Amino acid sequence: MKRPLSIFARTFLLLLGALLVALALGITLLLTRPPVRPAGVPLAEVVALLSSELPSANSRLTVSTNAQAPACPEGHQVDPFMRTRLAGWLGVPATQILYCGGWRRLGPDAVLPPSSARPSRDPAGRHGPGPGPGPDRPPPMLQDTPPPDPDFRAGAPLFGDFMVAMQRPDGQWRSVVHRMPGPLPSVARHVLVLFLLGAVVMLPLAWWFSRALSAPIRRFALAADRLGRHPDAAPLDESGPAELARAADSFNVMQARINRLLNERTRTIGAIAHDLRTPLARLSFRLHALPKDAREKASADIEEMNRMIGAALEFLRGQSQHGPRSRLDFASLVESVVDDLADTGHDAALLGSSGPALLVGDPQALRRAVGNLIDNALKYGGQARLQLRREDGNVVLDVDDEGPGIDPAREEELLLPFARGDESRNRDTGGIGLGLSVAHGVALSHGGSLQLRNRSEGGLRATLSLPCG
What we know:
- It is a single chain.
- By secondary structure, the chain is an alpha+beta fold.
- The protein has 9 helices and 18 strands.
- The strands form 6 sheets. Strands 2-11-10-4-3 form a 5-stranded antiparallel sheet, covered by helices on one side. It has a 5-stranded mixed sheet with strand order 13-15-16-18-17. The protein has a two-stranded antiparallel sheet with strand order 1-9.
- Strand 17 and strand 18 form a beta hairpin.
- Helix 1 (about 5-30) packs antiparallel against helix 4 (about 185-230), helix 5 runs antiparallel to helix 6 and helix 7 crosses helix 8 (about 365-380).
- It is rod-shaped and about 155 Å long.
């Protein structure tokens, strides 16, 4: 099954999506707004550049001087109307002026088309039709635009792309070229700047907010995992938002109740087991009145019951009493347990080890778990062969025997207290079914696991897995 996204990932993606939606709205408004009319070039500024050697202070105006008359740029056409007006401003004949443009504006509302698109005036000031289209004059533009007032003002702006040139007395041509900025690059720059600013401002905030929101939940999950490994762990810190603080308080109350129930169960069972010894002791005194055969059988049963009660009390003490935990080398601990058993004549050996295996745990509890696994192998298989390795951040100990194995359907059941595999184990080997349960409880309290598997070559393999420290 696909694992769902974490709260951190969901929150971060939500904030990132909100940023993208906000940017999309901004871009939509930017693209759909009415175009901003660019500022025009004052007519007086163009006249000043033509009649002097001043450099241009306007980035859209390019001034140059050439020996030959310049040609109209592509897409432009000669405008005799503007040529005549500029000649009047400059005080030179119209033949020494060249004006090429596509369209221009005078003032905020007037649009001046080329002269072929409007009536013209003769020198006396009378209106008449302008020259029609010909090989030297392109077709008219903006046919429906009314003629403007020809009385130019010095501050009247000129719009659009145009080129103006004037021939000086020395024969040189002084030209001024005006190019309007394209709207598309400006929009692209606005979009890019808007996106970069939003990313720079929002992404760090989204990252910080997502981590701040998920941190208490992450601590909550770690505390729940720690409770499963070590019931007596410290309570969860009740910090963070109000909802998580209430959840942490409820979690601490639950942990206290679980520990109280476990302790009460242990004390109750311990008291029952302890009280059973008194009537058993009385029975043992009364057995002297029985015949010898019956007395021996009854004594054997009472002795077995005493052993079971003693094992149960030891098991309960091990479950309720937890020693201090420290950083230790599990490989050295296993070697020590194996050496102690080998010195007493048991057939136990550590076949392989991957070097030091550091973890944090209770040394006494771990020694008891390893010892129980080896005892189980010795009782039912006659020998114990151990292998220690590392796997996926865990220390793994395999304990193999040469016994008859177990029923695969009861692999989980045999880890429970007082559970015995009747088909492969019998009472002659001793024990009451607590050895594997103790080892399993120690593994769980350290955040590990214990598994029982039949070996393909025969016998049983007990695998103890513990997380590295």
